[in-house]
What we know:
The complex is a heterodimer.
Chain A: E1 2-6, H1 10-23, E2 28-33, E3 37-39, H2 44-47, H3 54-57, E4 58-60, H4 61-68, E5 71-81, E6 91-97, E7 106-111, E8 113-116, E9 121-123, H5 142-160, E10 165-171, H6 179-195, E11 202-207, E12 222-225, E13 228-231, H7 232-242, E14 245-248, E15 251-257, E16 260-265, E17 270-274, E18 277-281, E19 283-285, E20 290-291, H8 300-303, E21 341-343, H9 374-394, E22 410-415, E23 425-430, E24 451-455, H10 456-473
Parallel strand pairs in A: 1-2, 1-8, 2-5, 5-20, 8-21, 10-11, 10-18, 11-14
Antiparallel strand pairs in A: 3-4, 5-6, 6-7, 9-19, 12-13, 15-16, 16-17, 22-23, 23-24
Helix pairs in contact in A: 1-9
Chain B: H1 2-8, H2 21-27, H3 30-51
The structure holds flavin-adenine dinucleotide.
Amino acid sequence: MKIVILGAGISGHTAAAFLKRKLGRHHEVTVISPSQYYQWIPSNIWVGVGKMSVDQVRFKLSKVYDRWGIIFKQAKAMTIHPEGDQEIKTGFVTIEYTSDGDSGKQERVPYDFLVNATGPKLNFAATPGLGPDKNSLSVCSCDHAIHTWEELQKSIALMKAGKKQRFLIGTGHPKATCQGAAFEYALNLAFEFKQRKLDHLADITWISNEYEVGDFGMGGAFIKRGGYITSTKVFTESVLAEHNIRWIKRAGITNVEPGIAQYELLDGTSSFVEFDFAMLIPAFAGQGLKAFSITEEDITSRLFAPSGFMLVDADYTPKPFEEWSIRDWPEKYQNPAFPNIYATGIAFAPPHSISKPMKSPNGTEIFPSPPRTGMPSGVIGKVVAQNISEIIQKGGSGHKHLANMGKMGAACIVSAGYSMTKGLGATMTVSPIVPDWEKYPEWGRDINATVGEIGVAGHWIKLFLHYMFLHKAKGYPFWWLLPE
Amino acid sequence: MAEKKISKAYRDEFYPPIPTKMTKYWRTNLIYQFFKFVKLNFKIMRMVVKGHS
Ligand SMILES: Cc1cc2nc3c(=O)[nH]c(=O)nc-3n(C[C@H](O)[C@H](O)[C@H](O)COP(=O)(O)OP(=O)(O)OC[C@H]3O[C@@H](n4cnc5c(N)ncnc54)[C@H](O)[C@@H]3O)c2cc1C
């Protein structure tokens, strides 16, 4: 059997590793990804403040795949042909090589099972003027993060010369997600300025499409703390205020010009904020793959939602927020039209957001899209690999392994400063990720499994996870024992 | 100092709870944090194990 995985990020790489481990030499596992590197994206925050080099957060995939016997093609998938064509009787993917020497060369890669783990397209174009090629910075990839660090050094130099600098950090689109990453970056900036005794010259503003700060695209959470059950709104506002970071919430950035970001608020008013340095997370979209039938008819809408993310076994029936249920969320990540196609990690189309949809009087939707962080992305990759290998080895169509985001928990360590003795990290756990209001009518989640703690221990955990996940991704001894 | 305080009053950042010196001290007390490290890792592991079917 031939199993093809598109994408070698957290989800695709995990799926490939477990598929090969389960299926051994008898079956062919191929990974197609446009970059020759695996990167541990969460540590890009530290690349963006100069605490880690690019090579500390990435490694060459071919080294690991050669050892494991996985075929690696440095290419990007362009089209999917689930029914094959006159020549190739199974499904196949057309790919275009991106590697030096082969760049631009096209190939058709047949599959029996296909796993789409292509993650998000960083859709800077959805906000005019946004992005590292235009008027703002990003830490979403290590190349972006290193560029951001170069720009930050210029701001630091100006501050050292006594010039005040305005920093704008947050979401760069009314429906952007990944607030956690931007929040980490804001806190790391504040920490770095304090360490350099430049904090009096830094004016940091947090701008976000969240209804309340601390929503993080998951509708916020509640934590038992100091004798109270406290919302992450209070927790997050406290952290921002402590670090002298001002915030603008319910804001959808609509345009970025050099030094100025324009935004619309949920109440319909518009305003702008000036900056010297802006790190803003773009909207995410699917990679825009197309699909064709055996007769070359465009069947993209059978595989993909209009957002470009892949349709899976979720309930996509539009419903009001009050009727949402964890049963809307997928558990097998299988495409309903073509059962041998799966989508894992950020690549699958969620049934709806987790945060409540909000619209301004002008009709602009301003609320976070649903995040799919590293832990669920890894778990979904593994579960899909387990199911495919069992179907191949034992036959049948059973999916013994399920991963519903309304049942699984997630841990997120928000770095708030890189130092072994003075650094800080906020450790947050929520269970489940998608609130289950039927099971937990009061808070939507298991209050006893929810943690929110700040301390240097959080930094140690984040650093430990960096090394642990890279150890696992490199396939070093006992990698399979390490959790996702 | 008083001027700085008044400039903050009635702004959003005036209202949230701010950690006391003691709270800040415990955040970087290495012995206390070592125990936190063990406890938090345990909590995370428990969640991770529960999340896999
Ligand atoms: C700055 C930052 C910090 C973060 N911090 C955390 C954190 O602390 N904790 C946490 O849990 N999560 C964090 N996240 C989220 C986490 O990185 C994502 O959840 C995770 O990367 C998603 O994994 P994925 O495999 O779905 O996508 P990705 O990791 O984005 O991988 C997608 C892969 O697909 C490849 N690809 C793209 N297009 C194609 C194509 N056409 N054909 C083939 N391959 C393609 C890409 O090259 C890549 O290899 C952070 C994210 C960011 C941006």
